[in-house]
Amino acid sequence: MTLNDVNVVHALDVASFSLPWPERAYKFEVSQNPNSLPLVIELKDDKSGWVIAGVLVIWLILDEAHIGTIAIDAGKRRLGLAKRLLVEGLLMSSSEGAKTAYLEVRRGNLTAQELYRQFGFTIEGIRPRYYKDNNEDALLLTLKSLDTDRLNELLV
Ligand SMILES: CC(C)(COP(=O)(O)OP(=O)(O)OC[C@H]1O[C@@H](n2cnc3c(N)ncnc32)[C@H](O)[C@@H]1OP(=O)(O)O)[C@@H](O)C(=O)NCCC(=O)NCCS
Asked: How many domains does the structure of the chain reveal?
């Protein structure tokens, strides 16, 4: 992700989440947060060339990769893009020294949970009433060991 991408990324975020990040948060991740790995995935469009189809932000904290957000444009879901983006992000995190990964997901977001299950994430804990818009619980998921062979196999 570059600063030029932030406009489109923010629009994608607003369309994907009931509590989107402010645009300035993406600007901060791109330009000021040294621990951030902000990524986009692009698809080639016949008319407009390469267009942003998804976003992923990972924070690298010591030997942990914390997934801050991941979303794919609603019109481009179920094409394997989230899986590809997350594999690439976790491989990059591993090459930066990450050994484990963490994330939070809404209890009711079964679609995302199915994605994470494929990677081997398991439930580590629950944060009750974590999301302020509807007081939904967050599940805290962890991938105990970032295994690069296993990650690459997910793309086969
Ligand atoms: C969750 C999300 C990122 C998945 O993106 P995607 O590009 O459609 O996912 P992929 O095509 O890479 O699918 C990967 C796996 O996720 C699971 N999955 C994705 N969409 C699913 C659905 N509608 N129903 C059930 N499982 C689904 C499947 O296990 C799938 O693997 P498969 O295709 O081999 O069955 C996307 O739905 C999204 O942006 N949702 C809104 C934002 C969000 O909830 N982000 C997660 C916050 S924790």
From this structure: 1
CB 138 within 8 A of CB 105: yes
75 in Cβ contact with 14 (< 8 Å):
no
72: Cβ contacts below 8 Å, ≥ 6 apart? 16, 41, 53, 54, 81, 82, 85
Known catalytic membership, residue 102: no
- What CA–CA distance (Å, rounded) separates 16 from 3? 20
Q: What CATH code is carried by the domain that includes residue 85?
A: 3.40.630.30
In terms of residue numbers, what domain contains 128? 3-153
Q: Quick one: pLDDT at residue 79?
A: 97
Say how far apart CA 120 and CA 151 lie, in whole Å.
Answer: 10
Residue to mutate, 13, 43, 78, ligand 1, most ligand atoms under 8 Å from C-beta: 78
pLDDT tens digits for 7-57? 999 999 999 999 999 999 999 999 999 999 999 999 998 888 999 999 999
CA pair distance 3, 5, nearest whole angstrom? 5
Please confirm, yes or no, whether 130 is among the known catalytic residues. Answer: no
Question: Strand, helix or coil at 108?
Answer: coil
